[in-house]
Write a structure and sequence with these properties.
With 515 residues, this protein is mainly α. It has helices at residues 2-27, 36-77, 81-97, 100-108, 115-139, 143-163, 170-179, 185-200, 205-208, 212-228, 248-282, 286-325, 330-344, 349-361, 368-392, 397-413, 416-429, 432-449, 455-459, 462-498.
């Protein structure tokens, strides 16, 4: 256990170190005037961030991933499709309803739509698409066709919103897709798909296990857009207080308690469902259950420490960096956005869970290193482009429509495993650190350049961009693999054809004498 924890700490330190290094470097430049107090809080938060990510990843390996696999395989072995689908739908609804970020989203739109109705509508959307994803695995259907259909529905509803004069809801709706795929749900749902696919078997079981996160991300977007039709007012944004509290200890205790309560609610629903299935279907031995219980403890502590660190130390610094960087040259803002986007995604806890599963399922064909490079480039590009949009003030759809056309077009020509991984990666990359560091930074830039009234139109949408660009970069990785394979075959064929005929050995059977 100690060796595993040390390995996770080392991995987390390597992931978080670039972010800390950039902020520390900026402190010694005139670009951003961070106070010694702000820098000290940030650096202390960074230490706790490393600890939180390490404990979370250890807990995910010990509890969340095995729980998902056992639930998926246990339900599939019953051979009762109605029970499998009912439990998966209920799981999708309850996990989403308990997601802390969704409550924050509902609070932002409470002035124009009922927050409770929004939460349960989004939960139903996730549940239905989780159910659809499970059906895809059971009946081995093509993920690309499903994604094309649901994104066609999404953009059709989006067009209706524009016609009805409610386009200001579009950035919020697209951001909601990233909000509902939180750090608790991602490893569990990914493992659920792996458990179902492994039990069903088949030649493409590994490839078939991906795609649940991708489908679950579409449901919230459609749900928020549909509810926007029922709103009877203009969406307004209320700027949060991003300052570090004067009484740091009091603010820290308050944040820890609030975060712990949110994590307990989110974890409790998964744990209760798992215990019910353990008694009725799975029936694991006590020793295995004890390991899962310990893993749940690590997951809880890790998430509380991680979320507290980003709230106390990273949100205020991210916002201030955005405000002060906006006063510099637009080129500096765009380049800084690209750089910070590249390194922040490395610190997302669920990214490492996905990368390990990808490397395992593909047998090392898709390595963690190649995944991290593709994700880093994707998120860096997304934040750079988001800064361009804030500076010049144009619609988010100018990015999303061509971006998804390219993504879905690539899905036709690249190996299906890359498409499934890419669309899952989009939901994973837009995790809590994106919401707590990148989004406040974008809000800071927008407040400085365009005013608080434009935050909903221009700053929101950055999470959607973070979720979209990995779809392209990871599929480009797959496209490169296709081209490389094609080139190797051509070179090999040329060598064969270039060989002298005398070098060709014929293995025709020798004729017997007398014939």
């Amino acid at each position: 256990m100690r060796k595993a924890l040390f390995s996770k700490l080392k991995e987390a330190l390597i992931s978080v170190f670039p972010v800390a290094l950039i902020v520390l470097g900026i402190y010694f430049t005139p670009l951003v005037s961070l106070t010694p107090r702000e820098l000290t809080v940030f650096l202390i938060s960074t230490v706790f961030l490393v600890l939180g990510i390490a404990l979370f990843n250890l807990g995910a390996d010990m509890a969340m991933t095995p729980m998902g696999e056992f639930v998926g395989s246990g339900l599939t072995k019953t051979k009762k499709i109605a029970i499998l689908l009912s439990v998966c739908f209920l799981m999708g609804v309850l996990i989403t309803v308990a997601e802390p970020d969704l409550s924050v989203l509902a609070g932002q739109v409470s002035a124009v739509m009922n927050g409770t109705v929004l939460i349960f509508t989004v939960g139903a959307g996730v549940g239905l698409l989780l159910l659809t994803g499970v059906l895809k695995i059971v009946f081995r259907r093509d993920l690309s066709l499903l994604l094309m259909f649901f994104y066609l529905v999404l953009f059709s509803v989006c067009a209706l919103l524009i016609v009805c004069g409610k386009s200001h809801f579009i950035p919020l709706a697209f951001d909601s897709g990233g909000v509902t795929t939180g750090p608790i749900t991602v490893p569990f749902i990914m493992a659920l798909g792996l458990g179902i696919a492994a039990t069903i078997g088949g030649r493409d079981a590994g490839e078939n296990s991906f795609g649940l996160i991708a489908l679950c991300s579409v449901g919230p977007m459609v749900a928020v857009m549909l509810l926007a039709f029922t709103s009877d007012g203009t969406l307004t944004y209320r700027l949060a207080d991003y300052s570090i509290p004067e009484n740091i200890l009091g603010g820290l205790i308050s944040t820890v308690l609030e975060t712990a309560l949110d994590v307990v609610k989110a974890l409790a629903l998964i744990v209760v469902l798992f215990l019910i299935l353990q008694v009725t279907v799975i029936k694991l031995p006590k020793r295995r259950m004890m390991k899962i219980v310990v893993g749940i403890g690590y997951t809880f502590v890790g998430l509380v420490v991680f979320l507290t660190a980003v709230t106390v130390g990273f949100m205020p610094v991210g916002f201030k960096m955005g405000v002060e960087m906006a006063g510099d040259s637009p080129v500096i803002v765009i380049l800084f956005g690209f750089l910070i986007g590249m390194v922040v995604v490395l610190a997302e806890p669920a990214v490492h869970v996905l990368n390990r599963q990808v490397e395992t399922v593909t047998g090392g064909a898709v390595t963690r290193r190649s995944m991290l490079i593709a994700l880093s480039l994707g998120v860096g590009i997304s934040l750079g482009l988001s800064m361009v949009r804030i500076i010049y003030g144009f619609s988010l759809l100018y990015y999303l429509i061509p971006g998804y056309i390219i993504s879905l077009g690539l899905s036709i020509i690249v190996p299906k495993i890359y498409t499934a991984i890419a669309f899952d990666s989009g939901g994973v990359a837009s995790g809590p650190l994106t919401s707590s560091f990148i989004l406040p930074m974008a809000i800071g830039v927008c407040c400085k350049l365009c005013g608080e009234s434009e935050v909903m139109n221009l700053a929101f949408g950055v999470v959607a961009m973070v979720a979209m660009t990995p779809l392209i970069t990871i599929q480009v990785l797959g496209f490169r693999a296709v081209i490389s394979s094609w080139m190797r075959e051509r070179i090999a064929m040329r060598r064969i054809l270039a060989e002298d005929d005398e070098q060709i050995i014929y293995f025709a059977p020798a004729r017997k004498e007398g014939r």
